[in-house]
Amino acid sequence: MTLYFDTKIEFLDSDAVSTISSWHPSEPLFAVASFSAERGGSVTIFADTGEPQRDVTYPVHATSQATAMCWHPEKALLASGWEHGDIHVWFAGHREFASVNAPHKAAIVLLQFSEQGGRMVTADAMGLVTGWRCDGQYQFLTMFSHDLREVLLLICFRRTVESEVREEMANLAKAAVAGDENALDTLTNWRPRTAARSMTHSGVRDNHCFYACTQGGVVFYINQGGACVEVMKCGSLPPIVQMLWHPKKDAVICLMEDLTVTLFLVESTGILTELDRVKMSGRGGGRQGGIAWSGNSLAIITGDLFVRIWDIERSDNYLLKMDLPSGNQIGSSLTSLSNGTISSSNQFFSHESSTESSSVPRKTPKYGQISGEIFTCLAYSSTGQTLCAGTSLGNLFTWKRSGSRLVSAPEDAWQLTNISSVRGAIRSCEWGFNELAKPCMLVNCLSNVFMLKEQPLLAFYTRELWAVQGSAKSVQLTHCSGRETTVQSEFAVTAMALNELSLVMSNGRSISSYSLQKVERSLDEFDEILEAVEGAPPTSASTGTPLSVKLLQTFPAECLSLHLYNQNIFCLASSDIMVYSVGGVVLHRMQASDIEGKIIGMDLSGCYLSVFTMNGYVKAYDVSRHDPKLLFPSKSGHDIFDDFGEFILVKCNSLGSHLAMVIASSNFTPISALFCWDFERNNLLEYDLVEQETSSRKENSSSSLPVRIFWDAEEPRLLAMEVKSMMQMTLPQKNSPQPSHFVLSKILLLFYSEKGCLNILETQPMSPGSQLLNLCVPNVLRLKINAVEEQPLQDFVDLQQCDPVTRKRVLNFSLHVAEGNMDMAYRSIRSIQSKVIWTNLAKMCVHTNRLDVAKVCMGHLEQARSVRALRLAIEDDDLETEAKVAVLAIELGMIEEAKDLYRQCKRFDLLNKLLQSTGHLDEALQLAETEDRIHLKHTYYQKAQELREKGDIKGALEYFEKTQNPAQNITQLLLENPASMKRYIQTTSDPKLLKWWGQYIESSGDMDAALAVYHKAEDWFSQVKILCYLGKISKADAIARQSGDKAACYHLARHYENVGKFQEAIMFFTRAQTFSNAIRICKENDFQEELWTVASSSRQRDKAIAAAYFEECGNFKHAVELYHRAGMLHKALEMAFESQQPEILEIIASDLVPESDAELINRCADFFCSIEQFQKAVQLLAKTRHLERALSICMEKGVPVTEELSEMLTPEKGEFDEAIRVNILVQLGEILQQQGDYHSATKKFTQAGDKMRAMKSLLKSGNTDKIIFFANMSRQREVYIMAANYLQALDWQSDPQVLKHIVSFYTKGQAFDSLANFYAICAQIEIEEFQDYGKALTAMQEASKCLEKLSHAQHAYNNLQRTVADVKAILEIQQALREGDHQLVIGSCRSMLIKPELPPIRHAHILSMLVRALVYAKQYPEAGRALKELAVKDNSWSASGLLDRGIVQRIAQECDLDFDLIWNSGRQVTASTSGTAVTGMSSTSALTTSDDDEADDEEITEELH
């Protein structure tokens, strides 16, 4: 709440009356021109205190008065124009007014400075306009002069549209909030005191161009150089009486004499282009109207008691409300003002005035019509976003634009806050600033001038007493016992302090101290307080006795701020702190050094005084003693903070250990954070408001500032902070009346912990108009307009009247809970019986998952049902931990937390149930459709029930349809309204619903209508039922046949049976699959053919019944078959045996399985054997796994075993004992071998594990590839040898692979004797067939290697070595023959021929080489004799190619022999048996058996197969 204190300006001449006035734009100075009959005209300069400036000689003229005044926009320079044409100028620091030589001969009517003061323009009543330039020596030089020959009404300098640089400098102390340049003004009224004031226009070029408007309607534009151009001619528009420059663009807004408001666009040359025009309606002309910029809108008065706001950007306009807020306790209404009540000097008026007229609603239009009061002037303060308007009766209306709330209409953003009254009609009002940069208002009436200072409502609170300013001079004092009194002061109170003993007040220049009588509480008063707490009406006894207050002393003292400790008064002056006693005696003077600067702020908490200075130093004192004691050396803020500009607030806690500080940054912008400095440990704690709000709120907070802070009076860890946040609207509409920003206020309760951090205890919202007053646990104190409100902490809701011990315990509990220390919190309150405390602890358990502590808490809350629900949840092992905690949250009413917990553990079924129980069915539906589809129909049902209860039948029907069970739900819903039911049924196609409706109609007897509904629902049974009832049998028969519906067929069959149509009844009973009824009719009427047909497709029980009937009738064929189909095989077999039906027996046997009765199987097999059907018997036995008997029949009867039968006779692993299984496989293999199926036999022998027999069987098959494969896979020595022996019998000379396998198998089987013999055979073949002794030698060498590995083959090895030597000798002979050494060849051959012939060496081969050598040596006779010996040795020498034909011809020619006779004698073929290369080696290998891998057996079996 804001008050305005008005001070009447006293002139030096008491008889003088004011004429004109002006307040400096940026300095706490204002000037007033006056006129008296004795002294004449004068100009006086006043300070912001209302006192004239000292040491100044003010100009006085006996016959003339000042007619125009203007302050320099940046310097303390006042220019005044006088009635006789003189111009006087005063400079700050000068005693005398300087006179300026001017060309004016008439009264100066206009005097204006440019935007930065570089150009001054004066105009007189004759139309002479002069431009001046002020140099650095304060000399004014004439720049131009124009004689316009017409009286000027106004001069309007061109202004520079604000650039980014200018905006930054102009808003140096403002928060950077997008879209609202007055954000800092909205959040806090703090202004930097260490920053320079005159920085507004630095860096911006001054503009000397201006418009001059004449009384005749002509508008001139004078440019930068002083050239004058006419931009608007006379008669085109009415004369302009007021012109304002647009704050955001190059445009001017003009008020015409006919109350037309016109917006002109200004070009660079000064040409005006009309953009918009609005004609206002009013009583007077334009000279009685007025316009003023109110932010980005234009405020307009038109000679009546209305203020209209024109929002140019949104093209919207509205009237400001003239009604004061209702429910005020103090203040005066306009009704009292209309009765002639006039305020005296220093009287306070506001919208909270006396209670006499507070209930009378104010009707401004009626009042304006009765009294003739009109608005005469307007002024707007951008700092406080305040608009004031003065009236012709001396009333000053003040509106404040609030950004702290959302409004539905733009006019709701403006609130009428004050109506002040001064003497006389108000001619002008103007805003200015005092020394503390607080807004002030200068009001110029007809004869007097008043200065109104804006002052916040004062209030002070202690635990026992509190004081609230009731008016400018009155303070309402209240005791906690209910006693109160009103203290009337001699002056307007601007500062106040209070304790239990004293009250002190000040107006800034003097201090008054009051003594308070100490109030002792009696037992009766405690009872009254207890009754008040319990809700009983208070008695008048407690409030009947007022508090006793006695004025002690009033003494002069400069005072900016007051504090009180015991009987000492601490008074902050302009530069130091004075300590007075309550009697006015100076006790101490506390000063700061030159380095620290003057003291600009102080605060007292308990006995600790905190002080901060102009140069950014902070100190703290202990004032509990006679002399204040400094707690720590003064500390600079630059040493404490990284980014520091100035201290805003500094407060010390009650323990004297921590300082809570709010500071501004180096660019003098408040920092959105609270700092807590532990100066004993030099530890700085910080709580960042922007960071915390960003993480906890969804809205975008543009700026947050701490406004007020208070430490608790007793708990040193706890403090309260009032925070204002500028919140940004999400997606604001362009033309929406809603502001783009709004202000939220709240109180944060913080505490510092031992861990060295600031934690938040709780947050309390604040309503508009409230402010934080103090913190006294258990309450947070607020000032709501002019009333003190107590808001308990959340843990003290039911403990406001508690003793200090309990209060301490509960506070400790709150702090421990905020830190998350559940154990310490529980220990703090074990003995406290407060449901709020236990509730808060239980809620904390939700966040910490401490279910054990929660059970104790719920027990203290005496919530048996909740304890039981929590216990059941804990014992339920199917519930997740989060789900169990959610149960606790639900019992505590923490529904949102329970939802989050269910989502975390993905128990959407429980979440759906919770949403339904809490009435959030739309959210439950969305959840069921996406996550919990198993309960979707139930959720639809609950939603339908909700809509049904609300009367939304259409919506309920929609959701009942989605439940897919509409018959029951919808019929109950619409049953009371048959017409609605019928209409709904006609549009639905649900079969269940239509069937129900058909039954409903049928019950009413309307069979035709019911039949139509049944037809639509496709209910064939109901149709057949009604048709049978109506006797329309043919139609019923057609429907039953066409639909095939079982119920319809059954009903029709019963009808046919009742009327004796048994054939039709049997047919429909069969279609209805009620075979027992059809069989019953067939038996009753001896329909055997029909019975056989029905029984063939009936159930087994019915087949057995029919079979028994056929047995009685002697129809054994049908009986056996039905018994067989009914699964009664024994019965079927016995009857088949008796009736000799082998065909049926075969069918029965085909259905036998291994699980069938063994006796039954054997009987079938015996039967097949008896009729010599051995193949069928074997197949039956094989199928039923009687394998041994099946094999015996095969062996005895010679049953051929096919491949399919062989597989059937093969036992599976694990089917029989292993020995029996092997025996069966061996028998099966022998049978297959006997039948010549060697491959299958090999497979069975392999499955039996007998690889030797398998190999023998495979050898008989002669399949070389499978033999090789089987040998490789078997990995048995004997198998290898058998395979090699087999391969050796093949044509291995022509197939290298076979030769390779022979060698490999002998090697793998370790049969080195056999391998050596094989190599010997190879050598013999090479010699006999190819005469290749080289390859023979190689084979013999390999044989020699094999014999080396045998210990018992030494004799054979020796013989082989001798043979090898002979072969080598023959190879040497052949080499010598090739080289031509014939004599060596002849000698070697004859020596070899002397030896006896031992295989594989043949003398025929040696003789052939001897013959060739002799021929080459030309010893032809010897050659002939050798040839003769060759013919004797080998009669096929020529045929075998031992000698060439040419050699023989030469011998015959040289020896004169018959060539033909010789040659033909060697071509005789005789049976010559080549001796076998007996090596004398015997096989000494022993047969060894090894266990083969079953996997190899199977692979061999498959390959052979």
Automatic annotation (TrEMBL):
SUPFAM superfamilies in UniProt: TPR-like, WD40 repeat-like
Every IF140/IFT172/WDR19 TPR domain range: 820-1305
Protein's name in the database: Intraflagellar transport protein 140 homolog
Native organism: Drosophila rhopaloa (Fruit fly)
IFT140 second beta-propeller domain ranges (all copies): 465-781
Any GO BP annotation: intraciliary retrograde transport
Source superkingdom: Eukaryota
Keyword line: Cell projection, Cilium, Repeat, WD repeat
Residues covered by the IF140 C-terminal TPR domain: 1313-1430
